[in-house]
């Protein structure tokens, strides 16, 4: 392949904040306990390794970073190679060119450029086959005269006026499965050059800017994430594996050489976010007889070992929790033979200010939630292994930010525990003194996530955090309110909530803010303790759970993401979704852009 060479100077490696003006589970046997006891385990991997070079340099080198190389930038994903190119399409020796076609319209702008080269071959076949461009409709044209690529894949995109972010991802995923089904190894994807419309009622209701939708960088990043998600398989426990993917390489075309630098960054960001999503899915999909709190800690240690220059891990076991007075956390795990264990992952990427206050992410990690004494119904109880998706999300975000080497200080907390019934289990009617000193009357042992989180949220006060975000499959009520498409968001700080809402729209990983008001807080009143662990009635259950947590977050800015509906799909498509890794990674990227903007001014 003939490629031009060039020397590109990247003025910044963190593009401006996109679209921002220059701002179910959760439903929540008397055996001897494991003999292993975890106290405070010393921090692992504390080697003062030299700063590793990566996609993003350390913050002291964020001035002019020269990138020397070819106009074709190559990045390898887990199973796929991704390139960004700027070259004549008809001269590219690829298996296929993927082009979008809108319903009841003429050829797209890209197809119009290719049609004359093919001596009107494309237009002629379109008329012959009556290709209407319906969403998901495909037409494979081959061989195409005067083009080196073996074929052209036309993708139906519905009406141009209806081609929004959801349809963009839908068409991208359909294109990948079509290429794979036809045994093609390499393709040039031109879907990133289509105009994407803003049709989201969430965006309109929150007055979100949506100009990023037609930023080539945004479209490349979303394409990479969609492709990697489409090809995801979880088969480590299957004896018969799916044959390896035939598709090996995807090339994205940019129209200008000046777009290559940021397109390459978008490619790297997309791969990192996709890797974080995959890591989250891989852990969440493990069965509960493998994935317990100790397993979560092992995974955290492996991650820190891989990124030892910037990352360390420590564990807080039951012995240390007892000394700290984390009685609510301990109560939940008391009925299980698997020991409760909280893993603390510390990432120090801000090399210019090692003492900068950290952003803290706290993930609920109930590795199996039977409901405890308040036992759940048997139907679908197998899905209660997903009650640790909050912790899995935190792990995935830590994977992504470490891969990107973001110049931030971030602490990830995996609050691992198992909720089982036994003679040692905590009971309805128990009154427990939390780490904060506040007392809680247990009304329902199946509202265990908030019991674990309240102590974890108190524990992280010691880090003097810039802000804290907890992520949890906390309530079935949130699924009732928002379904499986949008996460519930609550916060004690409006600016933080707005940042998360903006990031959720940019990432296509949507959230919706719910209120925290006194009317709901009063539902937690108890005659015998400072509060009950559930509200007096079922209405507003997601909000009362958030109100409960808010009583333990008065010393810092805090937000809560209830992902009970979004962490896993309903129905036949079992498996973790990896949400909200994309939202949180986008939030961190936006924080960097915000810091740089503040520094300039």
Automatic annotation (TrEMBL):
Gene Ontology MF: a single term: manganese ion binding
Gene Ontology BP term (one): proteolysis
Localization, UniProt: Cytoplasm
Residues noted as binding Mn(2+) 1 in the record, renumbered to the chain: 369, 446, 448
Alphabetically ordered keywords of this record: Aminopeptidase, Cytoplasm, Hydrolase, Manganese, Metal-binding, Protease
UniProt-annotated catalytic positions: 376, 450
Keyword DNA repair: no
One Pfam family this sequence matches: Peptidase_M17
Source superkingdom: Bacteria
Positions annotated to bind Mn(2+) 2: 364, 369, 387, 448
One GO term describing the cellular component: cytoplasm
Catalytically driven reaction(s): Release of an N-terminal amino acid, Xaa-|-Yaa-, in which Xaa is preferably Leu, but may be other amino acids including Pro although not Arg or Lys, and Yaa may be Pro. Amino acid amides and methyl esters are also readily hydrolyzed, but rates on arylamides are exceedingly low; Release of an N-terminal amino acid, preferentially leucine, but not glutamic or aspartic acids
InterPro entries associated with the record: Leucine_aapep/pepB, Macro_dom-like, Peptidase_M17_C, Peptidase_M17_leu_NH2_pept, Peptidase_M17_N
Domain Cytosol aminopeptidase: 444-451
EC number, as in UniProt: 3.4.11.1, 3.4.11.10
Obligatory cofactor(s): Mn(2+)
Cofactor binding, per record: Binds 2 manganese ions per subunit.
Keyword Metal-binding: yes
Annotated family: Belongs to the peptidase M17 family.
Function: Presumably involved in the processing and regular turnover of intracellular proteins. Catalyzes the removal of unsubstituted N-terminal amino acids from various peptides.
Protein name: Probable cytosol aminopeptidase
Classification lineage: Bacteria, Pseudomonadati, Pseudomonadota, Gammaproteobacteria, Enterobacterales
Gene: pepA
């Amino acid at each position: 392949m003939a490629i031009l060479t060039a020397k590109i100077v990247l003025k910044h490696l963190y593009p401006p904040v996109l679209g921002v003006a220059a701002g179910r589970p959760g439903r929540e046997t008397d055996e001897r306990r494991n003999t292993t006891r975890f106290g405070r385990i010393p921090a692992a991997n504390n080697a003062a390794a030299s700063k590793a070079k990566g996609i993003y340099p350390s913050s002291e080198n964020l001035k002019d970073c020269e990138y020397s190389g070819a106009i074709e930038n190559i990045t390898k994903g887990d199973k796929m190679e991704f390139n960004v190119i700027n070259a004549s399409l008809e001269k590219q020796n690829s298996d296929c060119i993927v082009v979008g076609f809108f319903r009841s319209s003429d050829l797209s702008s890209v197809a119009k450029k290719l049609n004359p080269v093919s001596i009107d071959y494309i237009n002629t076949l379109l008329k012959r086959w009556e290709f209407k461009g319906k969403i998901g409709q495909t037409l494979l044209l081959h061989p195409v005269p005067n083009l080196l690529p073996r074929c052209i894949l036309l993708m139906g995109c519905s009406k141009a006026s209806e081609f929004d972010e959801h349809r963009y991802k839908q068409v991208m995923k359909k294109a990948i499965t079509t290429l794979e089904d036809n045994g093609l190894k390499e393709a040039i994807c031109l879907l990133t050059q289509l105009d994407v419309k803003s049709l989201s009622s969430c965006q309109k209701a929150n007055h979100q800017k949506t100009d990023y939708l037609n930023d080539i960088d945004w479209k490349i990043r979303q394409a990479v994430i969609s492709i990697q998600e489409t090809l995801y398989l979880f088969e480590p426990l299957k004896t018969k594996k799916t044959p390896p993917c035939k598709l090996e390489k995807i090339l994205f075309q940019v129209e200008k050489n000046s777009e290559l630098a940021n397109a390459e960054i978008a490619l790297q960001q997309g791969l990192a976010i996709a890797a974080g999503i995959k890591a989250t899915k891989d852990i969440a999909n493990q069965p509960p007889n493998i994935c317990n709190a100790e397993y979560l800690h092992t995974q955290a240690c492996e991650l820190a070992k891989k990124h030892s220059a910037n990352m360390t891990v420590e564990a807080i076991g039951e012995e240390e929790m007892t000394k700290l007075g984390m009685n609510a956390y301990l109560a939940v795990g008391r009925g299980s033979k698997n020991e409760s264990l909280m893993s603390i992952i510390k990432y120090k990427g801000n090399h210019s200010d090692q003492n900068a206050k950290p952003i803290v992410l706290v993930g609920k990690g109930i590795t199996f939630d039977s409901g405890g004494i308040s036992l759940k119904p048997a139907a679908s109880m197998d899905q209660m292994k997903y009650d640790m998706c909050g912790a899995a999300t935190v792990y995935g975000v830590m994977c992504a930010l470490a891969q990107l080497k973001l110049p931030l200080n971030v602490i990830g907390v995996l609050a691992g525990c198992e909720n089982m019934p036994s003679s040692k289990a905590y009971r309805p009617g128990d009154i427990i003194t939390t780490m904060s000193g506040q007392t809680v009357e247990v009304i329902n042992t199946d509202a265990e996530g908030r019991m674990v989180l309240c102590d974890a949220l108190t524990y992280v006060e010691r880090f003097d955090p810039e802000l804290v975000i907890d992520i949890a499959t906390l309530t079935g009520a949130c699924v009732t309110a928002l379904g499986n498409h949008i996460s519930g968001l609550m916060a004690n700080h409006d600016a933080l909530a707005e940042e998360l809402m903006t990031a959720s729209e940019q990432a296509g990983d949507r959230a919706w803010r719910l209120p925290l008001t006194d009317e709901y807080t009063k539902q937690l009143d108890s005659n015998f303790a400072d509060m009950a662990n559930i509200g007096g009635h079922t209405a507003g259950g997601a909000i009362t759970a958030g109100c409960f947590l808010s009583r333990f977050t008065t010393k810092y800015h805090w937000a809560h993401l209830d992902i009970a509906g979004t962490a896993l799909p309903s129905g036949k498509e079992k498996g973790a979704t990896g949400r909200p890794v994309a939202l949180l990674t986008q939030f961190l990227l936006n924080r960097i852009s915000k810091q740089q903007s503040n520094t300039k001014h």
